[in-house]
Specification:
The protein is of the alpha/beta class and 737 residues long. The chain folds into four domains: 139 residues, Response regulator (Rossmann fold), CATH 3.40.50.2300; 147 residues, 2-Layer Sandwich (Beta-Lactamase); 143 residues, Alpha-Beta Plaits (2-Layer Sandwich), CATH 3.30.70.270; 245 residues, EAL domain (TIM Barrel, Alpha-Beta Barrel), CATH 3.20.20.450. The protein contains 25 helices and 27 strands. The longest helix has 32 residues. It is elongated.
Length: 737
């Protein structure tokens, strides 16, 4: 079974133990369980025939005092976060600087990966290794301790002989200061040449997929070969030596070159070819060189790891653009002597593309959008891919008008996706940072995101600027959603009832249930104050369920009192599309025992946009159970005559926008007459809402409308208010001759 924890530098066989004196190991951690687990894991462990002597400290302060009197400790297994989040690293600094102890090997361990040290810290304080507690299996713990003890042993020997140590430390420090693989690899070539006393002339190669070898770094005449496959460079003899080292997994020495093999089972192996005849290497020089190679293998792996972590933390893998963290980092490094504009750009109707063409096509669209933005904004300070269909753009500008023009021009032509031309609309928001030393990129990105959300709600296809009102609205929205979530579960949601009048005889023939929120903070709220927030937060489904339940309970109560009063209930598009919609309807009917024929379900034309089987199945299911079905706000949405023909509707409700102008323009009257004609041909009743004057009612009667509702006859009323109103109206009608 392969060992996937231990970085291996091929070495001489272990020397026999000089004594059985234990290796002193200090565990520093504020968790007693960690001490116990470590003792158990290393109980029978031996290195070079010597056991371990485990000592314990429970804080950084205690450990410093202990180490002040113990210069023989070989290795410290040190927790990063103890008294505070910097306790471990502060102890490392004091060990190196105040105690001057540079032989002690330090292995950092933490249960909180977010406190991982930067590479500068590892380099500056000669930290032997860094491990997360969750990844330290027994095998990995032993491997880590072996590496640390070997390093301690070799450092101690080197210190005793004082031969070449300065060069090793200086070389390792220089290399560990490099952040990326290429810079680190170039330093390895140079420093290895210095170790064996030859000119810096050579290459560092790593294995790639298959049998290929890639030149990662080069020095001297080999510099032009970087980032190219080794095969085909005209270096047949060198390639043969490198492949021999790879195959044999060990260092190889030639007449005029030396090849060093650096192996890690967690990363591709690396080989360093150094040109030039080296002097015989033996004795302490050999130990120094082995130590250096071990450090290089660890360093090379660490450099690769940091590159991978940086890519994961700051780059979106789909487009290879910076992600949100990368954007914030770039904004922090942007010029401070000029204004900066940050725009969040969202692809309109992206989910419609993925819904119709699939996620693969969606990925193609995202990459095509990224390429279009790159081409359109070569002057961008930063271009980032934030979420699936959202990009960010940073410019040295404060001109929103010009930004809108450039975005519009960029997407004037369609994008090619899987052989199809797809026109893309972009909606966005932007925020500004004036010239100055402070660069709060996170705040800027947040403000631009809020402006984008507002643009998606009100101004699709535009980029709008952030203002402070959006901040206040956003905070209010969050509080409102939290309060509404509580209200839906409690007794704060109420229904008021607006009467519907039959024009034939003037009698009340039903009511519409209108939702109200009796907020303990803001008082009685009307739907416009909270329903939009319910829709965007997903609370519209439980809110709609609560409304339906209250309407059924009121119908049951009125029926028990002998009042057969049909109730119209509004049902949202989201509710109708919900998988459990009919199940919940049936449960409420069973619980209340209400006859569905006295309930009218009102849906808007928006509900029909989904045009899917579930919507039509649910609507048909409602009619099969006996519910009436009304198409609300007719004439303002997107429904077609084909929808009217397919749906089991019983009523059309004419929107108030036609009613308000019916006595002022002939156009409204013509349209209402057409709607009434369509309804009559399909045997549906016609209701007109928003009637406020007797003139409007008279015109609607003339045009053949059946039922009206509006302030002319009554506003929304509580159940008790409605009952009183109804009694008065019925008495008045009865008294008329």
């Amino acid at each position: 079974m392969p060992n996937d924890e231990l970085i291996t530098i091929l070495d001489d066989e272990e020397a026999p133990a000089q004594s059985l004196r234990p290796w002193p190991i200090l565990v520093v951690d504020d968790d007693e369980e960690i001490h116990a687990v470590t003792r158990i894991a290393l109980a029978n462990f031996k290195f070079r025939g010597r056991p371990l002597a485990m000592e314990s400290c429970y804080s950084a302060r205690e450990a410093f005092d202990y180490l002040s009197n113990r210069r023989d400790i070989a290795c410290v297994l040190l927790d990063v976060v103890m008294e505070d989040e910097h306790a471990g690293l502060d102890l490392v600094r004091r060990i190196r600087e105040e105690l001057g102890n540079h032989q002690l090997r330090i292995v950092l361990r933490t249960g909180q990966p977010g406190y991982a040290p930067e590479i500068e810290v590892i380099q500056s304080y000669d930290i032997n290794d860094y491990k997360s507690k969750t990844e330290l299996t027994v095998t990995r713990l032993m491997s880590t301790v072996i590496t640390a003890l070997r390093s301690f042993e070799q450092l101690t020997t080197i210190d005793e002989h004082n031969r070449g140590l300065e060069l090793v430390i200086r070389s390792s420090a220089d290399l560990f200061s490099e952040r990326n693989v290429k810079e680190f690899a170039a330093g390895v070539v140079t420093q290895l040449a210095a170790q064996i006393g030859v000119a810096p002339e050579g290459v560092l190669c790593t294995s790639m997929e298959g049998d290929d070898l890639m030149v990662v770094a080069g020095a001297g005449r080999f510099s032009p070969f970087v980032n190219r496959p080794l095969t085909g460079l005209g270096l047949a003899g060198i390639e043969q030596m490198i492949r021999r080292a790879m195959d044999e997994r060990q260092h190889v020495r030639g007449e005029d070159c030396t090849v060093f093999y650096l192996e890690s089972t967690t990363a591709p192996p690396a080989v360093v070819y150094v040109q030039g005849a080296a002097e015989d290497i033996g004795g302490q020089s050999k130990i120094l060189l082995q130590l250096f190679c071990m450090n290089m293998a660890l360093g090379f792996e660490t450099a690769q790891l940091f590159e991978q972590l940086k890519a994961m933390a700051y780059v979106n893998p789909m487009t290879r653009l910076p992600n949100r963290a990368g954007l914030v980092q770039a904004l922090g490094q942007s010029p401070t002597d000029q204004p900066v504009l940050v725009a969040m750009l969202d692809i309109d109707e992206f989910h419609a593309v993925t819904g119709h063409l699939g996620f693969h096509a969606g990925d193609h669209l995202i990459r095509a959008t990224a390429q279009r933005l790159r081409a359109a904004f070569p002057d961008a300070l930063a271009l980032a891919h934030i979420t699936s269909d959202q990009f960010a753009l940073a410019l040295a500008s404060d001109d929103v008008r010009l930004l809108n023009e450039r975005v519009g021009e960029a997407f004037d032509l369609p994008l090619s996706v899987q052989g199809m031309n797809i026109s893309v609309g972009i909606t966005g928001g932007c925020a500004f940072l004036p010239p100055g030393p402070e660069r709060d990129g996170e705040t800027l990105a947040r403000e631009a995101t809020r402006a984008m959300k507002e643009a998606k709600r009100r101004m699709r296809g535009q980029v709008v600027a952030f203002d402070s009102n959006l901040e206040r609205q956003s905070n209010h929205h969050l509080v409102l959603i939290s309060d509404l979530r509580r209200a839906v579960k409690g007794e704060e949601i109420l229904l008021h009832y607006q009467p519907k009048i039959r024009l034939e005889d003037g009698r009340c023939c039903g009511v519409e249930a209108l939702v109200r929120w009796d907020s303990p903070i803001d008082g009685l709220l009307y739907p416009g104050a909270f329903v939009p927030s319910a829709e965007v937060s997903g609370l519209i489904v439980p809110l709609g369920r609560r409304i339906f339940e209250l309407a059924l309970r009121q119908s049951k109560l009125w029926t028990a009192r002998g009042l057969m009063m049909p109730i119209a209930v509004n049902v949202s598009a989201v509710q109708i599309q919900h998988a459990d919609f009919m199940t919940e309807i049936d449960a409420l009917l069973a619980e209340t025992g209400v006859d569905p024929s006295v309930i009218e379900i009102e849906i808007t034309e928006t509900s029909l946009l989904a045009d899917d089987d579930r919507v039509f199945a649910n609507l048909n299911g409602l009619r099969e159970r006996g519910f009436g079905l009304t198409l609300d706000d007719f004439g303002t949405g997107y429904s077609s005559l084909s929808h009217l023909n397919l749906l089991p509707l019983t009523t059309l409700k004419i929107d108030r926008s036609f009613v308000s102008t019916i006595t002022e323009t002939g156009r409204s009257a013509v349209l209402v007459a057409a709607m009434v004609s369509v309804a009559r041909s399909m045997e549906m009743k016609v209701v007109a809402e928003g009637v406020e004057t007797a003139e409007q009612e008279s015109k609607l009667t003339e045009l053949g409308v059946d039922i009206v509702q509006g302030f002319l006859h009554g506003r929304g009323m509580t159940p008790n208010e409605f009952e009183a109103w109804l009694a008065v109206r019925q008495q008045r009608l009865n008294d008329e001759p």
